[in-house]
Design goal:
Structural class: alpha/beta
Distance between the termini: 113 Å
Number of strands: 18
Strand content: 15-25%
Strand order of the largest sheet: 4-3-5-6
Number of helices: 16
Shape: elongated
């Protein structure tokens, strides 16, 4: 039997589906299996009709507001907005349009008028993207304080059919006459000139305040506070903050597990990075560094231009201006810098979870046994090469008890220090001043450099005198006391006890189970009887 295929027109039932079949007669397969007809649903013809997307409508009215400093009340955003609304009413806009423009004002807050238009992301850049029909600003300098940027704005407005208007009626870009454009260009040039005057006046005021040691503006750097004297701002000591910083610096210099940057930064109201920056800088000496705007486009300028932080000095270019009292003196500052270099070189503080006998426990093969936790989260000592482990409570109480029994009645020595003159900090300060003085001498005419040359000579003489006196060696005096060692042990901190055990040469060897002498063997280093080598005296020194 031969089946005739339906006409192609019959295959289309409606616009919502299409049917596909083999053309021509269909011959059934052997066994009477009917032929295969493939059907597929498709989108309706209506849904396949392209619907054009309407272009977003440009705002009919926009207000452009710009404010350089929040403290300038005469040109505040409220003042500008009020003037723009009044101008919009004068141009004939209805209340609803004005309200919408005010609610969606384009605001550049804290932005200089001399900056590029594209860089003003929240205000001018959005205006140029949205292309409103009319843009109103308070005054021409709210648009830009640069002739170049203002001309760029005018060209953009002409190309996009945007009308630029100021509320004081001095500008209307709809006036394309030669006279109108000339007046607008002159006003823009005056605005740019005013910006230059303002910048010069602000720079001069900042320089004067810096030379007088006055605080310029903003929040005081930690750990200082701002104090008013005769209506002028100065940095003053915050007693609590000073005490806290000095305490943390002492901990940093002492080292140990509580002497890392992370540990010493924890009690402070600043983060670790800010703490590191504070320690590296000159703020703790009561001084300031000035960082101007980089004149180079490349980041990380190495050219010695004004982007490099410079110490604020007096008129001689050598003596640092003292903005506030010193938190630390020159000698301590040098020790801090040396400590930071040690940490940067790879020295690491002990782990916070280091076991009591860290570094003192060995397995029977002589391998170091590190601290760790068992499956039940209990402290243990584990051989680093897998030779075995032992619970901490099997070793530590035995070591402590034996230490008290063998050495607890030893008498302590009181150690006092005398002599020693350390001028390292002052010498570093003098070296820096001499370098600054010599650098300034190279830039000055010979006739004008007499005073500075005399100052540098005085600094060198002082440096020579302090170098001759510099002798940091200290004489120790040991005096025997009636205090037994066990009393000091009971009152000691964890770090002090660990240091004491190490000083006495504590060595613990752990043997496998079944060892004839037991699993734990404790050894102590023999002591010399001279006070200088007395470990109890050494502990008294540490305590």
């Amino acid at each position: 039997m031969t089946t005739t295929a339906p006409a192609p027109a019959a295959l289309l039932s409606n616009a919502g589906q299409s049917t596909f079949a083999l053309a021509g007669p269909l011959t059934p397969l052997r066994g009477g299996v009917p032929p295969v007809v493939i059907r597929r649903l498709t989108r309706s013809l209506e849904s396949m009709t392209a619907t054009p997307t309407a272009a977003p409508a440009c705002p009919e009215l926009a207000f452009s507001l710009r404010l350089s400093r929040a403290s300038d009340e005469s040109s505040s955003l409220d003042v500008q907005l009020r003037a723009c609304r009044l101008k919009a009413e004068a141009l004939g806009y209805d209340a609803e349009t004005i309200a919408a423009a005010a609610a969606n004002a384009y605001i550049d807050d804290g932005v200089s008028g001399g900056s590029a238009l594209e860089g003003r992301k929240k205000g001018m850049a959005r205006i140029m993207a949205d292309r409103p029909v009319t843009v109103i600003a308070w005054k021409l300098d709210r648009f830009a304080r640069s002739v170049r940027e203002f001309q760029k704005l005018l060209d953009w407005a002409d190309e996009n059919g945007v009308r630029l208007v100021t509320s004081d009626s001095l500008m209307d870009s709809a006036d394309t006459s030669g006279t109108g454009r000339l007046i607008v260009t002159i006003i823009a040039a005056v605005a740019e000139w005013e910006l230059g005057i303002i910048t010069e006046r602000s720079t001069s005021a900042h320089e004067e305040r810096r030379e007088q040691g006055r605080w310029i503006s903003g929040k005081a750097p930690f750990p200082y506070r701002v104090e008013r004297r005769n209506g002028k701002a100065y940095l003053a000591e915050d007693p609590d903050a000073f005490a806290l910083v000095r305490k943390q610096i002492d901990a940093l210099l002492a080292g140990g597990k509580n002497g890392s940057l992370a540990a010493t930064a924890e009690p402070l109201p600043i983060g670790r990075q800010q703490w590191r920056k504070l320690l590296r800088g000159v703020v703790l000496r009561g001084q300031r560094e000035f960082k101007g705007k980089c004149t180079e486009k490349a980041k990380g300028c190495k050219h010695g231009c004004v982007c490099t932080p410079k110490l604020v000095t007096e008129a001689d270019g050598v003596t640092p201006v003292q903005f506030g009292p010193e938190v630390i003196d020159a000698a301590t500052y040098k020790r801090v810098q040396d400590r930071l270099k040690e940490l940067e070189a790879g020295e690491r503080a002990e782990r916070r979870d280091a076991p009591w006998l860290a570094g003192m426990v060995l397995c029977s093969q002589g391998c170091k046994m590190n601290g760790g936790l068992s499956g039940r989260k209990k402290a243990l000592y584990k051989c680093e090469n897998g030779h075995g482990s032992i619970m901490a409570d099997r070793i530590e109480p035995q070591v402590f008890e034996e230490f008290r029994d063998k050495h607890g009645n030893e008498l302590l020595y009181q150690v006092s220090y005398s002599g020693g003159i350390d001028h390292s900090g002052e010498l570093d300060d003098l070296d820096a001043k001499i370098r600054r003085g010599n650098a300034n001498l190279l830039l000055m005419e010979a006739d004008d450099a007499a005073d500075l040359r005399a100052l540098v000579a005085d600094l060198k003489a002082t440096h020579d005198r302090l170098s001759a006196e510099h002798n940091p060696e200290v004489t120790e005096t040991w005096t025997l006391t009636d205090t037994p060692l066990w009393e000091a042990w009971d009152a000691a901190t964890e770090d002090a006890r660990r240091a004491l055990l190490a000083d006495w040469g504590c060595k613990v060897t752990v043997y496998p189970n079944g060892h004839p002498g037991g699993r734990v063997a404790i050894q102590w280093r023999p002591l010399e009887k001279t006070p200088e080598d007395s470990e109890s005296a050494a502990y008294q020194k540490a305590a």
